[in-house]
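SAMPLE LOG
Freezer: B-3
Tube label: C17
Construct: single chain, 183 aa
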Amino acid sequence: RYNKSGEQSTMLSLFYRSPMVVNRVSKMFRIDNPAIYVAGGLQVDLLTELAKDNRAENGFLARMAHVFPDDNKKRYHSKAKLSKNVINGYHKYLKILASITEPLDLTLSIKAEAIYEGWFNKNVDISNETDSGYLKGVYGKLDVYALRFAITLHGMKAVCYKDESKQISEETMQYAVEITEYF
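STRUCTURE (predicted):
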């Protein structure tokens, strides 16, 4: 529905969690901190379809973190399974994160801030050197990705290692930057 529903501006605003009003026939309500998680697979040849209707220029595609394997050869059948320990740990992680009812005030440690600032400024230089409007849009979103990855990794440390720190560490920020660089 995205391309014909007139919801492009709403979807673009949700990237920055801008408040939104939902108006349905039966009622109207406000969502102050909306969040939408989108994941899925798509054949590479269909990416050009996503870019139609101005979505490459308006920032829609830049708001997606595309993943493409370095080795995309089809694998032979495998009977390998995730261990119960991994599955149970993942469910525990999600349950604990879902139980958080109050916002956490996370900050970057001094060293994490230095890593982020250095990477941020390097990213600005790369963005300023490109003539592609689409790439400028992508580079412009990476700073948000880096911080979101840092928060996600910090949450994993909090759950898996009982780390109650309210500061994102140097190590966590470095990992977040490396993940961002992948994209």
